[in-house]
Design a protein that fits this description.
The complex is a heterodimer of chains A (460) and B (115).
Chain A (H helix, E strand, L loop, with lengths): L5 E6 L3 H12 L4 E6 L2 H7 L6 E5 L7 H11 L4 E6 L4 H9 L4 E4 L4 H32 L2 H4 L5 H15 L4 E4 L6 H10 L8 E5 L5 H9 E2 L11 E2 L1 H4 L4 E5 L6 H13 L1 E3 L6 E3 L3 E6 L3 H6 L5 H8 L1 E4 L9 H16 L6 E2 L1 H9 L5 H15 L4 E2 L12 H4 L7 H15 L4 H8 L3 H9 L14
Parallel strand pairs in A: 1-2, 1-3, 3-4, 4-5, 6-13, 6-14, 7-10, 10-13, 15-16
Antiparallel strand pairs in A: 8-9, 11-12
Chain B lengths: L10 H6 L3 H27 L3 H17 L6 H13 L6 H23 L1
The chains are: A alpha/beta (460), B mainly alpha (115).
Chain lengths: 460, 115
């Protein structure tokens, strides 16, 4: 870790001693030393917030303990080392109570002790500075406009909702197809909210075995069930004062839903095997790619929990509805990939752009990312051409090929097939979307003009 | 007088850094401030202002220590503590005058060594 320079103010009224200390500390080029001869002088410059102040305990215009209090009040982060002409344990204890970081007696090895003391404090200061920078970076990273790329109208609406969600302490439900960036939205809301200094805890409900989910969320006491060898704090408690992100909430088992509802309503929980109530202060963000309302109708999701979780709903548009965002995002991934892999900068050929714009992206951004990354690898120069764009699902085919030489009939068939593939072969939906009769589609299927399944060789 | 053993030593300063400019700088500040502070010490003692006697003795102590003027280190400490605690008041003036004379002598020694 590179150590940053640190600023040190020496407050010492004795000119000889001040010169000696100042010179000694300046021997380290990382120490930026300024010298002051009175309390008044340093208090006039305390707004520069030095990292470390060394205080002579007996100054002509103020005693060290009072000056210490003033320095700490004006600049709480500043570390203070008291240098005293004589050892006095009582005074030293008082000074420590008031926030002094070290107490050094003027004698033959004052310099060495001061040096050691500053080195110790320095590590502490560097760590704090690093934490502050990291926090800033995280926040920058999750700045809405930077985290989520695009300027389509559909997305602008999402930004507006996210801002509302960040500024209020409301439950947020994020809906969107797989790969649309639901977790990114959740993280961005957290890191732009007042809870950003506290944890963001993501839990993928679908990824945790049913039987373990309860203890994962609520925690358990030692011995509360077979295998519970230690006491464990659950995700809810871990997220205290922060945000708990429950991804794939639609996959939650119905029994578990009842328990979750209770916890959300009471704002408190008991760990498994415990009688102790734990108060909660957690913001909940849930996400699902399913239509929860449908699940409610089918009796697979509790209606009361649905309304409890609805809060502020944010619907993420699928990539195919985001128009030119596809190219913006593709360019972002291309730059990122080339950068990470030390490849020369590449750009999309106009035909390649067309291909991407016409594709339906059932896997959304995740799919786009893998397509352009592969394209970056396949292309040998600074251009990504149409042949570098390899789309693996069959529903791309119709729009991937040159459509100029097709008959109207062929073209109609392609469009219908594309929609069938996209909407999981839901004939009624496709008929509605394309405004054609469902019987037309059924007839074409029975004539083998349309397929109701994917070809084995295309099912890659 | 020139052949007399110096009552001070620059060893502690050289230990910090034996850079010639630095040593010269410390010495010149010492020659400026110590006689001044000693004068204030004598004055405070004559006025029986023990608060000030303590303050100047305390300041002089660290300089005396730095230049290893060991022959009066005990005296300085005695004056500092006595003035602070208001004890042995009657013994302070004699010690102060010894300190004054010695420091006078030492500053001359230093000046001569520079000449």
């Amino acid at each position: 870790m590179k150590q940053e320079p640190i600023s040190i103010f020496i407050v010492e009224d004795d000119a000889v001693y001040s010169a000696v200390l100042g010179h000694f500390l300046s021997l380290n080029p990382d120490f930026q030393v300024r010298k002051f001869t009175s309390a008044k002088a340093i208090l006039a410059s305390i707004h520069d917030k030095p990292d470390i102040v060394t205080l002579d305990y007996s100054l002509p215009d103020m005693t060290g303990d009072i000056l210490l209090e003033k320095v700490k009040a004006a600049s709480p982060e500043t570390k203070v080392i008291i240098i005293s002409g004589q050892e006095d344990i009582k005074v030293a204890i008082e000074l420590f109570k008031k926030g002094a970081n070290d107490y050094i007696v003027k004698d033959n090895d004052t310099q060495e002790r001061l040096w050691m003391s500053i080195q110790n404090l320095r590590e502490n200061i560097s760590l704090k500075k690093e934490i502050a920078t990291l926090q800033q970076e995280v926040q920058k990273k999750y700045n809405f406009q930077k985290a989520i790329i695009g300027n389509s109208p559909a997305l602008k609406q999402v930004f507006a909702l996210m801002e509302k969600a960040a500024s209020a302490n409301i439950t947020v439900s994020v809906y969107g197809e797989t790969g649309t960036g639901k977790d990114l939205v959740a993280k961005s809301i957290h890191f732009n909210s007042e809870r950003r200094k506290f944890p963001f805890i993501p839990v993928n409900v679908a990824a945790i075995p049913r039987d373990l989910l309860e203890s994962e969320l609520f925690g358990h006491e030692k011995g509360s069930f077979t295998g519970a060898a230690n006491r464990r704090i659950g995700k809810f408690e871990e997220a205290n004062k922060g945000t708990l992100f429950l991804d794939e909430i639609g996959e939650m088992d119905i029994n578990m839903q009842a328990k979750l509802l209770r916890v959300l309503q009471e704002q408190e929980l008991t760990r498994i095997g415990s009688n102790e109530l734990v108060k909660l202060n957690v913001r909940i963000i849930v996400a699902t790619h399913r239509n929860l309302q449908d699940l409610v109708k089918k009796g697979k999701f509790r209606e009361d929990l649905y309304y409890r979780l609805l809060g502020l709903p944010i619907h993420l548009p699928p990539l195919r509805d985001r128009g030119n965002d596809i190219i913006l995002i593709a360019n972002y991934f291309i730059d990122q990939f080339c950068n990470e892999n030390h490849l020369p900068k590449k750009h999309l050929h106009v035909e390649a752009k067309k291909t991407l714009m016409l594709y339906s992206f059932p896997g959304n951004i995740r799919e786009l990312k893998s397509i352009v990354e592969l394209a970056c690898v396949m292309s040998n120069d600074d251009e990504i051409n149409i042949e570098h764009i390899q789309i693996h699902t069959n529903n791309s085919k119709s729009f991937n090929n040159n459509t100029e030489n097709l008959t109207l009939k062929q073209f109609t068939t392609q469009i219908l097939q594309h929609y069938l593939d996209t909407y999981e072969y839901d004939v009624l939906k496709v008929a509605e979307k394309l405004d054609v009769g469902k019987s037309t589609i059924y007839r074409m299927i029975s004539n083998n003009e349309l397929k109701l399944y994917k070809h084995a060789e295309e099912r890659n | 007088m020139e052949n007399e053993k110096p009552l001070y030593s620059l060893a502690k300063i050289k230990e910090i850094d034996d850079d010639e400019d630095f040593i010269q700088q410390v010495i010149s500040i010492f020659l400026e401030t110590v006689p001044e502070n000693t004068g204030e010490l004598v004055k405070a003692c004559n006025e029986e202002n023990w608060e000030q006697v303590y303050f100047y003795a305390h300041k002089i102590k660290s300089n005396v220590n730095l230049l290893s003027i060991d022959c009066i280190l005990d005296e300085i400490k005695f004056v500092e503590q006595s003035a602070k605690n208001r004890i042995n008041i009657e013994m302070i003036p004699a010690k102060v005058s010894l300190i004054n004379e010695t420091l006078h002598y030492v500053t001359n020694q230093i000046k001569n060594s520079l000449a």
